[in-house]
Specification:
InterPro entries: aa-tRNA-synth_I_CS (IPR001412), Anticodon_Met (IPR041872), Met-tRNA_ligase_1 (IPR023458), Met-tRNA_synth (IPR014758), Methionyl/Leucyl_tRNA_Synth (IPR015413), MetRS_core (IPR033911), MetRS_Zn (IPR029038), Rossmann-like_a/b/a_fold (IPR014729)
Structural class: alpha/beta
Helix content: 40-55%
Enzyme class: ligase
Strand content: 5-15%
GO molecular function: ATP binding; methionine-tRNA ligase activity
Shape: globular
Pfam family, one: Anticodon_3
Number of strands: 12
Main location: cytoplasm
Strand order of the largest sheet: 3-2-1-9-10
CATH topology of the domain at 140-241 and 373-451: Rossmann fold
């Protein structure tokens, strides 16, 4: 502050310090009356800076309200910042930050005491009545995963982004004795269903019936533990959606407006198939029917809109409260803030279609609700088809915690549009407490594509000969929690053979086999040494870290804790060599028994694998997870027949599958534009500039995460092609630098 008596902050002439501080303070101090009189020196300095020519130009072009909106729009298109405290994620396990910390005497003693208390100290597993309903005094958890479009067969990215992630968390909740209901179903109304029906020569209902059965079979094979898997084409959907609509209408949250729309007998759709962005069809440069390629004409039509600006006053305080008390993933918060920051606009909720929930209002009875107004209401109607007491879940925010699972492209509809609909309806609806969104899972070096035969889709996974548990493990291992990740056949083989087979599976099998081979299938007596107690304490720390992570729905990192426990177990067995000690004297045989007994109890911890439960004959009363590692299988407990849990994946097998599913396409050349590039087109230049920036960021991320060279080369080639197109659009020479390693010698 004393420097303010001088002309500038750091020296007698303006410096970068003055510019940075001035630009930071400008939004707050542009109204100088906000400065108290005792800060006269600050006011004088600020006025001097503001009146300088460079600062005036900056204020006019960037910081003043009109330009600020444009600046916000630009910032919105940039990738979210990577906070210094956040760890960059990849397909690989996080590196150890250093050696394991030393255990305290208190931790060792507490772990030994918990072990000694045994299974009797565990709470009894909660057995909810059917149907599952909220219970007073219990933690009632309602879990949904984004409703999959009925006309699409889900690929591996869809499965991990929604149903498998939600399933893993639901299983955890049940093991914690939380009263849990997990519902999902197919989203069956809308444009895509009508189009698919025409393509296949079926009615929309026949298409829905066909693909609902496909989805059901896929999720059953993947062992997804829905309490109920339903669909949106039900009477309850109509009743509940129309009730919410009527309540919004009565409270003045709906608008009527004229929209210019493309009219053609077979023309359907107003959403980009590539990115899912909502667009007005009249904005398309060359609109044409997807089916017959005919050119539609523009006609005005009346539609109803949800008045989001009017609902914003209710939305923002609810969001702040939900963010403060719930667990929202970073991308969910970022995307939601972006929508709020850019200002909400009225959203059209009706469409000129036949297949959908009818609009119950005169003048609009020939229309249906737009799918993104209608589809999230499917959570409610699906629950209503499960139990006629559905309102005990969905109109009970005081007792129910709601978790929504989805990929990031679904976030705005669950964090803004759907909550606004329920807030406006004003009927004590349960709103989302925890919004869990993943990034995208890619396939090898590209995207999943059913039409091009690229990637593994749900109906194909079971034909690979690879069991569902291996698929579940690998998808959870590379779950895109912090950034996009990529499925890789070679990585699948490596992770299966090293982590699932040689680490986890090997440990569980060895522990069980020692009981059978050396002790007649009965858990032996155990006399713990200090080293054993240290192991108990170490496992307890891993177990508690596992709980902390899963309570925050960091599923991928929690899986690392399980693998770490099995690594501790393998090391424990290797150091103590029970197969040798069993042949020694009484002391050695006793030591072999202790090591075997402790190890087989550690093997019980990954309780989510049903085969372990069966082989070790674990009592049903033990199907509950606590924060302590206890002796669940005491001396005298008899195990069953122990056999290997997982299978090795061979290189020849993987290479065959890679070719079958179109992998290894890293050497594809970037696509050339379908239409010639016209130099000087400002809109095209802007679009290409944004694509270049986006692709450049992606390449930098790949390099930072040490991705495979083939993948980096592919993405660099795409970047260079985009730069070439941008140069052509700007009327410059299309020559671009040759990637390193490709230069002619």
């Amino acid at each position: 502050v004393s420097r303010l008596n001088c002309a500038c902050l750091a020296q007698d002439t303006k410096s970068v310090a003055d510019v940075v501080v001035w630009s930071t303070l400008f939004p707050v101090l542009q109204d100088e009356t906000s400065l108290p009189s005792e800060l006269q020196a600050l006011r004088t300095w600020f006025q001097r800076m503001t009146l300088s020519e460079a600062c005036r130009k900056a204020a006019d072009s960037v910081l003043m309200p009109k330009a600020l909106l444009e600046f916000k729009s630009y910032l919105q298109k940039q990738p979210p910042p990577c906070l210094a405290m956040e760890r960059v994620t990849s397909n690989e396990p996080e590196e150890e930050e250093g050696s394991e910390r030393a255990l305290t005497e208190e931790e060792i003693t507490a772990a030994a005491d918990a072990w000694a208390r045994g299974a009797e100290a565990l709470p009894k597993p909660w057995q909810p009545q059917k149907p599952v309903l909220p219970v007073e005094g219990m933690r009632n958890v309602l879990i949904t995963s984004a409703l999959p479009y009925v006309n699409n067969v889900p690929h591996l990215g869809n499965i991990i982004g929604c149903v498998l992630s939600a399933d893993t968390f639901a299983r955890y909740c049940r093991l914690r004795n939380w009263n849990t209901l997990y519902v999902c179903g197919t989203d069956e109304y809308g444009t895509a269903t009508e189009t698919k029906a025409v393509e296949e020569g079926l009615t929309p209902q026949e298409i829905c019936d066909k693909y609902n059965a496909i989805h059901t079979d896929i999720y059953h094979w993947f062992n997804i533990s829905f309490d109920y898997f339903g669909r949106t084409t039900t009477p309850y959907q109509t009743t509940i959606a129309q009730d919410i609509f009527q309540r919004l209408l009565a409270r003045g949250f709906l608008l009527q407006d004229t929209v210019e729309q493309l009219h053609y007998e077979e023309a359907r759709g107003d959403q980009c198939d590539k990115c899912g962005k909502l667009i007005n069809a009249v904005e398309l440069k060359n609109p044409q029917c997807k089916l017959c390629r005919g050119v539609p004409v523009v006609k005005p039509t009346q539609h109803l809109f949800l008045d989001l600006p009017k609902l914003e006053k209710q939305l923002e305080p609810w969001l702040e409260q939900s963010w403060a008390t719930g667990d929202w993933t970073a991308n969910a918060r970022y995307i939601t803030r972006s929508w709020i920051r850019d200002g909400l606009k009225p959203r059209c909720i009706t469409r000129d279609l036949k297949w959908g929930t009818p609009v119950p209002l005169d003048g609009f009875r020939d229309k249906v609700f737009y799918v993104w107004f209608d589809a999230p209401i499917g959570y409610l109607s699906i629950t209503a088809n499960y139990t006629d007491q559905w309102e005990r879940w969905w109109k009970n925010p005081q007792q129910v915690e709601l978790y929504n699972f989805m990929a990031k492209d679904n976030v705005p509809f669950h964090s803004v549009i759907f909550p606004c609909s329920l807030l406006g309806a004003d009927d004590n609806y349960t709103l989302v407490n925890h919004l869990i969104a993943t990034e995208y899972l890619n396939y090898e070096n590209g995207k999943f594509s059913k039409s091009r035969g690229v990637g593994v889709f749900g109906d194909m996974a079971k034909d690979t000969g690879i069991p569902a548990d291996i698929w579940r493990f690998y998808l959870l291992y590379l779950r895109p929690e912090g950034q996009d990740s990529a499925f890789s056949w070679s990585d699948l083989m490596i992770k299966n053979n090293s982590e699932l087979l040689n680490n986890l599976g090997n440990f569980i099998n060895r522990a069980g086999m020692f009981v059978c081979k050396f002790f007649g299938g009965t858990v032996p007596n155990m006399v713990l040494t200090l080293d054993d107690k240290r192991l108990l304490a170490r496992v307890t720390l891993e177990l508690r870290q596992y709980h902390q992570l899963l309570e925050k729905v960091r599923i991928r990192d929690a899986l690392r804790c399980i693998l770490s426990i099995s690594r501790h177990g393998n090391q424990y067995i290797q150091v103590n060599e029970p197969w040798k000690r069993i042949k020694g004297d009484e002391k050695d045989r006793q030591r072999a028994g202790t090591v075997t007994g402790v190890a087989v109890n550690m093997a019980f911890l990954p309780a989510g694998i049903s085969a372990i439960q069966g082989q070790l004959c674990i009592p049903s009363d033990c199907f509950v997870l606590s924060h302590d590692f206890t002796c669940t299988l005491p001396p005298g407990h008899r195990v069953g027949t122990v056999s290997p849990l997982f299978q090795k994946l061979e290189n020849d097998q993987i290479e065959t599958l890679r070719k079958r599913f179109g992998g290894g396409q890293a050497k594809q050349t970037p696509p050339t534009p379908a239409t010639p590039i016209t130099p000087g087109d400002p809109q095209l230049i802007q679009e290409l500039s944004e694509e270049v920036a986006k692709q450049g960021n992606y390449v930098r991320q790949l390099k930072a995460n040490k991705a495979e060279k083939a993948q980096i080369d592919t993405e660099v080639a795409k970047l260079l092609e985009l730069k070439r197109q941008l140069a052509l659009a700007e009327g410059k020479s299309p020559d671009v630098p040759v990637p390193k390693g490709k230069q002619k010698k």
